[in-house]
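Running this now, will post back.
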Amino acid sequence: MPSEAGVFGAHGEAIASTVLAKRGYRIVERNFRSRWGELDVVAYDGTTLVFVEVKARRGARFGEPAYAVDRRKQRRLVRLAQQYLVRRKLGEPLCRFDIVVVDERPGGPWVEIIANAFDASCLE
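Update: finished.
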């Protein structure tokens, strides 16, 4: 049985996927898992393959959600993306990393897409 946090996270990912699709992203996969962790959403924005990290929150009690994607998390996401490309035999397409912030509010969710939030230089 999923935890309340797990259910909330999945709800945030569903909202993020819906908003991304409405903005023209083509969702190709959700919740890709490997030994490095999980990619929340993989999508195409035009010809660019986008690895999306979703941060869902209920208010700012724990700080801004985008700040939760620190250098350590960025390195993990880059490794996951590399593994995804190898497993899916996609070669070396143009890629980027976006963060989608989903903030649950009484009037409905507020969603922000931070395109090109970081790049693979975090491995250096």
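The domain at 4-123 is CATH 3.40.1350.10 (Trna Endonuclease; Chain: A, domain 1). More later if anyone needs it.
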